[in-house]
Amino acid sequence: MNGRIGIGMMVVALLATPAQAQTASVEGLDALLREVQSAAAEGRTLNREREARFLRDKNEQAAMLREAEADKRKADARIATVRQRFEAQQREVQALKTQLRDNVGELDQMYAGIRQAAGDLRALAADSLITAQNPTRLELLDQLASGRELPGIPELEQLWVTLLEQMTESGRSVRFEAPIVNAEGLSRTAEVVRVGTFTAFADGEYLVLDEQARLVALPRQPSRSLRGLAADFSETQQGAAPVLIDPSRGALLSVEADKPDLLERVQQGGAVGYVILVLGLIGVLIAVGQLLYLIRTGSRMRRQAGQLDQPRQDNPLGRVLATFRDDAGGDDDPELLELRLSEAVLRETPSIERAQSILKLFAAVAPLLGLLGTVTGMIATFQAITVFGTGDPKLMAGGISQALVTTVLGLVVAIPLLFVNSLLNGRSRVLIQVLDEQSAVLLAQRLEGRRD
Fold it and tell me: Phi first, then psi: what are they for 247, rounded to 5°?
């Protein structure tokens, strides 16, 4: 305020420079002074009002501050109380969480055990013949083994019943009606006989379980004796009966059924095997014919030996005797007569020793043909290895089978032919010996007659 007054006085001094305007300036200065004084008075009044208002506002603010501080203390108290309650509840929640985690962990272990048991039983039931009798149990086991929902009491009871069923039915032989799929893929309903979990058959055909839990007849059935065993067991109504047990649930039966029969083994020998068999068949026919000839000739010679004075032309001894009789009236030299008798015996010898040389040849050639088949089979095996490698042994089985089968066929043909040839040789030697003996006797009788 004093600064403003000073500035106003300086302005008045600068404006009051001319002398003529001094009187007017004095009046103006007075007026200005009065205005200044009035303004100063108004300013002081305003200042006092402001100070009064400020003081009044200050007291109100102080009251408000005290009230706010009181509210703050109350709020702090409530916050402290709430915080304590919150912390208490937090501790309680944590304790409940711990208890829940422990309880859930035990439940998880229990249900994990249930799922594991259901999964193991599912794998067992998928290959069990009992499933063909009760196929719906696979659905329950699938639900328990892979389901996301917790099983209830009924499902757990069904699992227990299924376990008991698996154990009890494993030791029973039962009959039941079930659909059967044959080798052509056609389905029919038949009476199935199940022996535990090992074997099942219907109408003399062995059955296995496929991936869809259906009973399927083996495409290749085992041997006739095993099928007959199954048929006899099916017809048995009481008592004990022998039956084939397959603990591998069809695997061994499939292997047994896949074994080639005699005709298939012969076919494995190929062209060489057929040649060996034809050779053996011809040798057998020749041997049988010659053996019958020797038996018949020996019988006739024995009858002729009892009737030396009546030679017949139906046997070698009779023909030799006829030769001797033709020379009975002559006076030939004994040496010449001996030569004629020897000639007669030699003339009969080829027919008696007939077929022995060819049988020896067949007996010698058959193993050689078997060796030939072995070589060709091994060549085929190595060709298969060259083309396909050694990853699949079945590709090499054809050549190996040919090699072994031809060897066996060669030995099978050669060994009997050797025995038969030995038998024919022995019988022919006996007959020739009889001719030699009778010739010697006749010659000796002739010489004794001439001496008399």
Answer: -65, -15
CA 36 to chain centre: 121
* Residue 321 near residue 311 (C-beta atoms within 8 A): yes
Between 137-146 and 153-169, two packed helices, what is the crossing angle to 10 degrees? 130
**Is it the case that residue 115 has pLDDT exceeding 90?**
no
pTM score: 0.58
Say how far apart CA 164 and CA 137 lie, in whole Å.
Answer: 12
Any residues with CB less than 8 A from the CB of 344 and at least 6 apart, and which? 319, 320, 323, 324, 439
- Residue 17 buriedness (CB in 10 A; 0-12 / 13-18 / 19+): exposed
Residues 32/36/41/47 CA torsion (nearest 10 deg):
150
> Contact 206/222 with Cβ under 8 angstroms?
yes
For 141, other C-beta atoms within 10 Å of its C-beta total 23
Residue 413 Cα distances to 277, 283, 359, 389, angstroms: 7, 9, 11, 35
Q: Phi and psi dihedrals of 329, rounded to 5?
A: -85, -10
Residues 6+ apart with CB under 8 A from 169: 130, 133, 196, 197
Q: Which of 405, 406, 396 is nearest to 372 (CA)?
A: 406
Per-residue pLDDT, averaged over 149-165, amounts to: 85
**d(Cα 222, Cα 204) in Å, to the nearest integer?**
10
Q: What's 150's DSSP letter?
A: P
| Mutual angle of helices 316-326 and 334-352, in 10-degree steps | 160
On whether the CB atoms of residues 430 and 298 are closer than 8 A, the answer is: yes
Q: What is the pLDDT of residues 344-381, one digit of tens each?
A: 889 889 999 988 999 999 999 999 999 999 999 888 88
Question: What is the Cβ-side half-sphere exposure of residue 20, based on CA atoms within 13 angstroms?
Answer: 0
Q: If pLDDT is split at 50, 70 and 90, which confidence band does 294 have?
A: very high
Q: Are 173 and 193 in contact (CB under 8 A)?
A: yes
